[in-house]
Amino acid sequence: MSDTVLFALEAGLNGLTVGIMYSLVALGFVLIFKASGIFNFAQGVMALFAALTLVGFQTGQVPFSHLINAIFGAHVSDFGFTMPAFLAIILTVVVMVLLALLIERLVLKHLVNQEPIILFMATIGLAYFLEGLGDIMWGAEVKRLDVGIPQGMSSWVDETTYNLFGYGFYIDTLSLWALLIAAVLVTGLVVFSQYTKQGRALRAVADDHQAALSVGISLRFIWVLTWSIAGIVALVAGIMWGSKSGVQFSLSLIALKALPVLILGGFTSIPGAIVGGLLIGVGEKLFDFFMQPVIGGATENWFAYMLALVFLLFRPQGLFGERIIERV
Amino acid sequence: MKMMKIAALLAASAVAAPVAAQDLHFPMLNYRTGPYAPGGIPFADGYQDYLTLINERDGGIGGLPIRTTECETAYNTERGVECYESVRGDNPLVIQPLSTGITYQLIPRVTADGIPLHTMGYGRTSAMEGETFPWVFNYPANYWDGASVAINHLLAQNDGSLDGKKIVLVYHNSAYGREPIRTLEILSERLGFEFLPIAVDHPGQEQGSQWLQIRRERPDYVLMWGWGVMNAVAIQEAANIRFPMDHFIGIWWSGSENDVLPVGAGADGYTALTFHGVGTDYPVYSDIQEYVVGRGLAAGAGDQIGSAVYSRGLYAAMLAVEAARTAQELAGHAQITPAEMRAGMEALSISEERLTELGLPGFSAPFDVSCQNHGGSGAAMLQQWDADTQSWSLISDWIEADRELIGELAAEDASVFAQENNITPGCL
Amino acid sequence: MLYREAGDFKTSYASDNQTFPIRFDRAAYWVAIAAAFLVVPMVLGDYWANSIVIPFLIYVIAALGLNILIGYTGLLSLGTAAFMAVGAYATFKLTTAFPGMPIYIVFLLSGLVTSAVGVLFGLPSLKIKGFYLAVATLAAQFFLIWLFTRVEWFYNYSPTGQISMPERSMFGVIITGASASSTAVYFTCLIFTVAMAWLARNLTRGTMGRTWMAIRDMDIAAEIIGVNPLIAKLSSFAVSSFFVGVAGALTFGVYLGAAEAGEAFSINKSFLVLFMVIIGGLGSILGSFLGAAFLVVLPVLLKLMLVDGFGWPADLARHLEVMIIGALIIVVLIVEPHGMAALWRTIKEKLRLWPFPH
Fold it and tell me: pTM of the predicted model, to two decimals?
């Protein structure tokens, strides 16, 4: 095979693995949109908040230490213990569930039956709030996140491809893990929504709020449930992206990478989020590979959106979205 | 109710404005929040701690205490304007905007208002032409110096010839990241190395295709002009593709603990440029421990002391204090005005003896500022990261930049600016 | 007592159709205009002018533009900042290419350039709706910013990649550049804001506004009764972008004086303007003013209160400020989802009856 084909293949494969990372973020959006029709802009900040909390637990930081020091003139910073990753993850999940509960109590309950754009704005307000809260609680420094997921070039892929093609492909081990984790996550979600009582209730609500209410499903419980699940998905996304770059403010910006995935895949489809992520990942890597010499690099930010836009012109509801039926 | 509050605050701010002028006002336009907070916090701490030290140990400069005010910009240009407006009536001796974007907005404003602006290692490179930019200083080094120093370092490593080598520049796709490209292009023509710029879009969380390309191209060296999260991700990716870390050189804004710590052991051996010493092996740090930390006056959380960007903040404060001292000598009185401060900055001379007196031997390359040259020496060193001890160490001596070339480029840009803005270059 | 309709009889269609049918409103409007033109410049200090009033006036224009798109036509856009950037770069290119052109004309032409770009990016709206369209406008946001960073022609091949506004004057008064007095800048912004608000008000209650609102309320139904969705949607994009473009031109020309696309016109600015529109009130001219005032003044007030008032560290105050703004947005949405303008309408209804509620 010629070099160009090999290189393009390598770029494409990397695109697939990056795409899965995008899908992890997009999944959270889909879950909430499906269950409550809310376009949750705070998903990215939730990932940041979850990752910050996880690191905070792991390293035994005192939450709000900066605030405490400023008010009481104290000098507290950490408890002086470290926690195993496993325990810290469980505690973080508890925090995310509590957060979901609070969001439902303080925000969503009061906004029932509002227009989608109002709910969307409320989640932007929520994003701001969480952003400030995360910083005040855990500080704004860069934090290293390590829960034991290996990183670096996968030697196995390198050697196998070298033996096959005479050129070793580069794949990050972290993204192979992301693949595995995404598979587990999606399977888990499918099993949950198909085979448990709560899962079925969730699907009923997604189908028709009013009908679900009339058969005795508690809408508020379902909302807490979806936001909790979205919080857990955010934690997973936060761990994967945080392992890559450290935990810092920019982590919240990954939401922007998930949006084109959403429009491509459709707002209401979990398989759509996965396929959309893969398409965007491969598309942007290949576009960069072929167009970089012509128009220069750094096209990734807009290319994903352009791809989604062009796609929408042919299929306005996304790849797997529910067909839009309009009546007068 | 709201109106009453506004009125009350208006009244409060009106009362607060005229301050008794028996102090030296050093405003700080910090960014301890927002996307770049990890870089802004240590700088702010270093700057403030040094000024606190001068107050506590020496009782201020020339007998007058230093007054600092802090304004949070969050690295946002509009907040930067707000901050500038809020301090400008209060006799600010020198403004350090800590952001290239804010710098560009402030250059015409400070020139009109007569307030010195010091952009240390960032900002507008051609501001080194003091005759066109009388109120703007960017000593001791700028981005073009950085590019030239990096190439000079590589020249020295390769016995004076880079012919046939391939050098990649990974840069933040913004005005800042594009700064070194022209210098490097010219140098590549002169020295015969192949130069390949690769852009990374903001914020730089995902750099897969860039590093795949680097892996395919197999460059001999990689330079980086990165910022924020982009640095850590780039170092991580470089470690992933097993690029030799000591062939990877970052600019000074890509050389802080925040950039290497998240990567862990993989970052070992990464090098970055610096125009000041690093680490705590300087006598001044014992004074800081005694007078600042010991008295509970440390800025921020107090956990940044000795980090690379903290040292930069400390260095900026030291230069500001030295300039104020020079200004007091020139003016013959202690209560200096911003205009007198400007004269002091222009007459600033940093010598090896003075640095030793200050407890900072070898911390900075010696340089003199003049009316023509607001850009200092342009020399820089290389620092290398040791992941085991989690510390930077200096691995080179001062490396000079090709000031002839950079002077030429800067003069060209400055003359365009002078033409656009009807400035007749000359000394004040 | 104050707010009476009784006795305010209309004797012609013209007076029945006027913008402010109630006498008190009319009076308030003229008082506000007079105060803005005569009193404010006398008392305005540099700090208040440059950090609050001027950005407020500029943001009003941007919010009016976005309100036309979202509030009147129902097309959600998240690309506002990019269109502001188009206005800014158009101003830079025009004024450096034709230094003699009067600066007000340059600002207006920049608006027209933005208008053309807006129509181009508005084309997908014919097919795409709702959040899908919102995300599609993000394509404009990222692509335009990339273009302005990438193509050197836009910043006149300057090695710095920044655009800086040269000094320009009109009728002998310096309008742009650092030596412009804040009074001149204030008047420039005020004139544009008042003119644009007048334009927006009259466009939205005329035929064009009605077709927009028909499309907003239900586009299929509107199409059936004879509204051309192509013309309605694209005209809405054109007018909206014109407003936003002028706001961008003013932001660069008189407020910031220098800009870099990625920094000054990032997506955060798009969200900020969107907040103003929603908090102020969708489909309301007054709402654009209220929303802009709320979001420009609030951060400064919070800063004054927390930092100067309580003496808290600046960074802590800033974190709290972000939290408070986030929380306030949620509170406003809960209390009055239709924005501050709707709140004002409610107050007005009460005032009309006061002090005899029955």
Answer: 0.91
